[in-house]
Design a protein that fits this description.
signal; single chain; Gamma-B Crystallin, domain 1; 2 domains; 126 residues; mainly beta; globular
């Protein structure tokens, strides 16, 4: 091993052990506060074969209508911050009737028969 490679490796290991940046850049400090986690499925029933994955909502996403990235027919909301609310819509741009989805340990947010969740809005009480 070359001396410069050894020194660079030693510095990287030391910085990592101390929690310091190892790539020469300062660590990102996030002011965007956590709000909730969710998991979505492309079919009702929340079967593993139709699992589309998980997502996290942070404070920068509050009060903004957002589109789901795929066809979503079932939803599980977890770890929601008290005072925050998740509204799902079967129409674009958060139009039409809103359905407030609540935190659950199972498959609770099934879309109305024949429809899919298209957009959503997350709000928190002041």
């Amino acid at each position: 091993m070359q001396p410069t490679t050894f020194v660079a490796s030693l510095l990287a290991i030391t910085n990592h052990a101390l929690g310091l940046p190892t790539n020469g850049f300062a660590k990102e400090t996030r002011t965007d506060k956590y709000v909730l986690d969710y998991r979505v499925w492309s079919r009702p029933g929340c079967l593993q074969a139709y699992n589309l994955g998980v997502g996290t909502i942070t404070s920068s996403e509050l009060d903004t209508c957002a589109w789901f990235f795929d066809t979503v027919q079932a939803f599980n909301l977890t770890n929601i911050v008290p005072g925050c609310h998740f509204y799902a819509y079967t129409e674009g741009d958060c139009l039409g009737r809103s359905y407030e989805l609540i935190q659950s340990s199972g498959c609770a947010g099934t879309a109305p028969t024949g429809k899919s969740w298209v957009t959503y809005l997350v709000t928190c009480d002041s």
